[in-house]
Amino acid sequence: MERKVAELELGLFTSGYQRYTLEQAFEDASRFGYDYIELWGGYPHAYVEDLTARGVGEIDRLIQKYRMPVKCFTPEHNGYPFNYMAGDEFQWERSMVYLEKAIELTAAMGAPMMLFSAGHAGYQMTGHEIEERLQKSLERLTAKAEQQKVKLILEPLTIYESNVITSLNDLERALDKVLSPYLVGMCDLAVPYTTGEPAAEYVRRLGGRFGYLHVIDNDGVSDSHILPGDGNMPLEGILREIRRAGYDGCATIELVTGYLKEPSVYAEIAIKRIRSIL
Questions:
Q1: Rounded to an integer, what distance in angstroms lies between the CA atom of residue 155 and that of residue 166?
Q2: Cβ neighbours of 237 (radius 10 Å)
Q3: Which terminus in the chain has less CB density within 10 A, N or C?
């Protein structure tokens, strides 16, 4: 007899609202029935340097006004403006300081999680050099996360975006080298779909070290993040298998730059489609 799995909590990612006020994203999340906000840490909404200088008072105001928690902060990085996997030691240090500030801000706004990934390391680093740089980066950021009591969510990227963590094996190997309850992995559905992996295997293999999900559709041959139902993915079956594997946590519907013109319209369509699938 199959055990019953609780409903996934569905989050709205604010990146798609970058041509509108941040308040519009909170208002839409409330009126469309989202459970939480994944806050994009980019300009003009919640850029790390701006929040460091001005504080998180405006974020707190929106949380209270719309009764909409921020459960995850996702600072913009990986080349825009920083990439800890590329550049010299000076640039690596600046990237570390930037992400450490982001961890502090995550704690300050009361969000339990911060999401980050490993950007492209370029074409001149050896595999050994990439592994060394990744490990020292994760060790430093995890130490900061433990201090701030913030859980770090490490996101694999597609092969079109990075050459560091682009598969379940890559993710598991990275987590094995830095063992901490404050560092866990996740799955963006575009990643296993483009690499030919079953998404639910992330949940099975990582177990308690699996902590987050990005729900999106994809064409199978690019890093495209497509409105659920408009791509080629068998989303209903994939989500069913993920839930059967035991995952019942947070799942952000990750609409990004392809829907900047009408983010409200697509945010409503997206959650209706995912709710109907679930």
A1: 9
A2: 12
A3: N
Residue 60 lies in a domain: yes
Q: Is residue 226 part of a domain?
A: no
From the candidates 38, 100, 161, 254, give the one annotated as an active-site residue.
Answer: 254
* Domain count of the fold of the chain: 1
Domain that holds residue 155: 20-212
Instruction: Please state, in angstroms and rounded to a whole number, the distance separating the CA atoms of residues 214 and 105.
Output: 22
Return d(Cα 3, Cα 25) in angstroms, integer: 35
**Predicted local distance difference test score (pLDDT) of residue 111:** 98
Residue 235 lies in a domain: no
| CA–CA gap between residue 205 and residue 207 (Å, rounded) | 6
Q: For residue 85, with 0-12 CB atoms within 10 Å meaning exposed, 13-18 middle and 19 or more buried, which class applies?
A: buried
Any idea what the CATH number is for the domain that residue 92 is in? Answer: 3.20.20.150
Structure confidence by residue, pLDDT tens digits, 241-275? 999 999 999 999 999 889 999 999 999 999 999 99
> 255: burial class by Cβ within 10 Å (0-12, 13-18, 19+)?
buried
Tokens 């030691």 label which residue? 89
Question: Which residue among the candidates 38, 76, 100, 155 is catalytic per the annotation?
Answer: 155
Reading the block at residue 268, the tokens are: 């409503």
Instruction: Mark whether 262 is an active-site residue.
Output: no
Q: Tell me phi and psi for residue 160, to 5 degrees.
A: -85, -10
- Ramachandran angles phi, psi of 45, nearest 5°: -85, -60
- 139 catalytic residue (yes or no): no
| Domain assignment of residue 138, yes or no | yes
Longest pairwise C-alpha distance within the chain: 57
DSSP reduced 3-state for 115: strand
Measured CA angle at 163 (ends 162, 165), to 5 deg: 85
Residues 6+ apart with CB under 8 A from 255: 13, 15, 16, 216, 225, 227, 263, 266, 267, 270
